[in-house]
Amino acid sequence: MNLPISLTVNGVRRDIELADPRVTLLDLLREHLQLTGTKKGCDRGQCGACTVLVNGRRINSCMALAVSHDGADVLTIEGVARGDELHPVQAAFIAHDGFQCGFCTPGQIMSAIGLIHEGQAGDDPERVREGMSGNLCRCGAYAGITDAVLDAQKSLDAQKSLAQSDQRRSA
Amino acid sequence: MKNFDYVRPTTISDAIAAAAEPGAAYLAAGTNLLDLMKGGVTRPNRLVDVTRLPGLDRIEPLADGGVRIGALVRNADLAHDPDFAKSYPAVAEALLSGASAQLRNAATAGGNLLQRTRCAYFHDVASACNKREPGAGCDARDGENRLHAVLGWSEACIATHPSDFCVPLVALDAVVEIEGRTGRREVALEAFHRLPGDTPERENLLEPGDLIVALRLPGEARRFSAHARYLKVRERTSYAFAVVSAAAALRIEAGTIREARLALGGVAAKPWRARPAEEILTGSRPSPAAFRAAANAALADAKPSGDNRFKIELAQRIIVRALTSAAAGTPQRIAALPASPFSSLSGALHDA
């Protein structure tokens, strides 16, 4: 059975014919669209390496059937930088040594972007750790990850208030 | 994973017709179902995708002051809905203590009720499991069973229901709305899940084709909002299922408990309402002695099903702790570590 779906992936519309309904969103990204930044760790929703944003929300792409997400807007790690300019969360992970081997990092960064967007953690490191508990790091870079998320949140907040004051000036 | 037909109906009646066929299963977020399918534990021939059904993703206030939660409302959306969290704080806390942020963004209210047990022998297709294969036997009985049931279990099955969400819901008299081949009906959540008996494969009252369309909380459930907690002991602080958990909700007037609700998670094949404990609490003044008496009553019929005698005392202690915390008052904001006993909130007794 051929299942046609269309997705917007990192701002680009992709029309895809699925030959098999079993394809997960993760396998679609990696095997069909060659977007291998999103990692397959456990493939069972336990490690968070496959985290992407779907319609702006972070989910485990290994636990999502691609066919069920027909029409969705997907953001992966490949889509967060602007050309050579890193996303503030990417820059913060480098500044704070938020990784060692790097395998979990795309998922950590996508999860952190989702967390900051959800706006529940604020500047409380305990809430950041709790909000990031769906992303495991075998290298144990958790201290750096927490610092990176807190720092990225601060710089994103600063960017936002700068943009707002620019808007007020031009108004 | 076994292959399957995929259908995506756009009306509830088409969904019911498609799912009434033998071997069919409903798919919502799939956060539990896909995991089971990947492991070969569940092998449906057909998935009926309900995510496009209209009208099931709303949180609606009811005329009696209660709330109707559409079956497709995502866990995170419900937990962070300001009115809902204020009115039913123990339910919001239970939701936020479950799974991870990624899973809570996907998992649905209806799907939560239909989660399968986390018993390792159910998940391991090489093991004997009466739930997975009726009549096969139960390898958990003589296996690693320290996390298994202490209430309501049978020789055929000692598995527990893994939900957090269902625990405060059953305490607050939630109702399940079901649409099926013979029309719409509703059942109390307390009666929805079945104890294993000789048929552990039958986990709830659903018949082929039956679709959960909504959950309702009655208006009276809001009366507990000032004194409600959910506490959950886990083997790690976050992103783990309950070893035991308790939802406690009190209505206190002039220093006396006028009404009490108590339910336990992680102890049985269903969320466990502790009515004998509620009776003891009603009319008492909040005190350690009253809470201990309630805890003893709640576990009076408990017996270990294996290496899990400790869960009986643990459940009693978590009940005392949850009641103490509820009596002290619902926190203004959910703790950084939702439902965690390792939190220094007022009212917490670290030696309970």
| Major sheet: arrangement of strands of chain A | 2-1-5-3-4
Backbone shape of chain A: globular
**Helix-strand string of chain A:** EEHEEEHHHH
Shape, principal axes of CA atoms of chain B = globular
Would you mind describing this structure in some detail?
- The complex is a heterodimer of chains A (171) and B (352).
- Chain A has helices at residues 25-32, 88-95, 105-118, 125-131, 142-170; strands at 3-9, 12-18, 51-54, 57-60, 73-75.
- Chain A is α+β, with helices and mostly antiparallel strands.
- Chain A folds into two domains: 3-79, Ubiquitin-like (UB roll), CATH 3.10.20; 88-163, DNA polymerase, domain 1.
- In chain A, strand 1 (3-9) and strand 2 (12-18) form a beta hairpin.
- The longest helix of chain A has 29 residues, at 142-170.
- Chain A is globular.
- By secondary structure, chain B is an alpha+beta fold.
- Among the domains of chain B are: 5-52, Uridine Diphospho-n-acetylenolpyruvylglucosamine Reductase, domain 2, CATH 3.30.43; 221-328, Enolase-like, domain 1.
- Chain B is built from 13 helices and twelve strands.
- Chain B has helices spanning 12-19, 33-38, 75-79, 82-87, 89-96, 101-106, 109-113, 120-123, 166-171, 189-192, 275-281, 288-298, 310-328; strands at residues 5-7, 24-27, 46-49, 59-61, 67-70, 175-180, 183-188, 211-217, 228-233, 244-253, 256-265, 272-273.
- In chain B, the strands form three sheets. In chain B, strands 4-5-8-6-7 form a five-stranded antiparallel sheet.
- The radius of gyration of chain B is 20 Å and the shape is globular.
- The N and C termini of chain B lie far apart (46 Å).
- Classes of the chains: A alpha+beta (171), B alpha+beta (352).
What tags apply to this protein structure?
heterodimer, A: 171 residues, Ubiquitin-like (UB roll), DNA polymerase, domain 1, 2 domains, five-stranded mixed beta sheet, 5 strands, 15% strand, globular, B: alpha+beta, Enolase-like, domain 1, five-stranded antiparallel beta sheet, four-stranded antiparallel beta sheet
